[in-house]
Design brief:
Elements: E1 4-8, H1 12-24, E2 28-32, H2 35-45, E3 49-53, H3 61-69, E4 76-80, H4 85-93, E5 98-101, H5 106-120, E6 124-126, E7 129-132, E8 135-138, E9 143-146, E10 149-151, H6 155-166, H7 174-182, H8 192-203, E11 211-217, E12 221-228
Parallel strand pairs: 1-2, 1-3, 3-4, 4-5
Antiparallel strand pairs: 6-7, 7-8, 8-9, 9-10, 11-12
Helix pairs in contact: 1-5, 2-3, 6-7, 6-8
C-alpha cells in the first residue's frame, strides 16, 4: 500500500526539498501552502501522516492541528522555529506526535516520518476494540484484557484508560482530563488524575516486560503511547 504524506508549508522551496526526499522513500506526497487548503486536502486525500508548519496563511498550524484532532488521530509532525521551546510544548499539548526544528536535515525529517509511521502501525482498531501489544480494550463490554487475562479496573480507571488510548499519542493536561473523564462539574482535587495514572501504571505498565503505555510530558500532562523498552 502506498503511504500518503500531506506536507503543509508556505515556503515552496522547502516543500520541494521535502517532496524530493520523501518521494525517494516511495511515499506519495501532497503539498499545500496554506492552512485552509490543508484541511480540504486532509478530507480529500485521507493521508497517513501530516507534516505541518506553524506559520501559515489563512489558518495557522495550531488551528489546523486542533481542527484535525477533532476528527482524526492521524500522525502529525510539526515544524517549529529554532529554539522555540514553547512551540514544541504547545504542539505536543494540542496533539502533535513529534516536531522538527527549522532549519533541519532532510534525512532527519525522513527518519522521524518513518519512526512515527512505524509506531502508528502498531495499533489496530477492530470495531469496538482497541488492540495494542499485550492489551485489548473492548468498550462495548467495558472489558480490558492484559496478556490474555481479564483485568479488573475501577470505573474511572477504565474511563481514563479508554479515553487516553482512544486518543493515542495526544497529550492532555490534568484539567482537560478532569473535564473529559470526570465531567466539567467535578469538584475535587486535580491530583486525582495523578492518582489514577499511578494506579494504571501499576496495573498495566508494571506487568509488561517490553512495552510502556502511560507517559508524563513534563509541564504539560499525560499521554498514552506505545513505547518499546530495550
Amino acid at each position: 500500500m502506498e503511504l500518503k504524506i500531506l506536507v503543509v508549508d508556505d515556503d515552496k522551496n522547502l516543500c520541494r526539498l521535502m517532496e524530493v526526499y520523501l518521494k525517494k522513500e516511495k511515499y506519495k506526497v501532497i503539498v499545500v501552502n496554506n492552512g485552509q487548503e490543508a484541511i480540504n486536502k486532509f478530507h480529500e486525500e485521507n493521508p497517513h501522516l501530516i507534516i505541518l508548519d506553524i506559520m501559515l496563511p489563512k489558518m495557522n498550524g495550531w488551528e489546523v492541528c486542533q481542527e484535525i484532532r477533532k476528527q482524526s488521530n492521524i500522525p502529525i509532525l510539526m515544524l517549529t522555529a529554532k529554539g522555540e521551546k514553547d512551540d514544541k510544548l504547545k504542539g505536543l499539548g494540542i496533539g502533535a506526535d513529534d516536531y522538527v526544528t527549522k532549519p533541519f536535515d532532510p534525512d532527519e525529517l525522513v527518519a522521524r516520518v518513518k519512526a512515527i509511521l512505524r509506531r502508528a502501525g502498531n495499533i489496530k482498531r477492530d470495531g469496538e476494540n482497541l488492540v495494542f501489544p499485550n492489551l485489548k480494550i473492548n468498550n462495548k463490554k467495558h472489558q480490558v484484557i492484559l496478556k490474555g487475562q481479564e483485568l479488573e479496573l475501577a470505573p474511572k480507571e477504565y474511563d481514563l484508560l479508554y479515553f487516553l488510548s482512544k486518543h493515542e499519542k495526544q497529550v492532555f493536561s490534568r484539567e482537560h482530563l478532569l473535564d473529559r473523564v470526570w465531567g466539567f462539574d467535578f469538584i475535587g482535587d486535580i491530583r486525582t488524575v495523578d492518582t489514577h495514572i499511578k494506579r494504571l501504571r501499576k496495573k498495566i505498565d508494571e506487568q509488561l516486560d517490553k512495552y510502556k503505555y502511560f507517559h508524563t510530558v513534563w509541564g504539560v500532562g499525560y499521554k498514552f503511547e506505545i513505547i518499546k523498552e530495550d
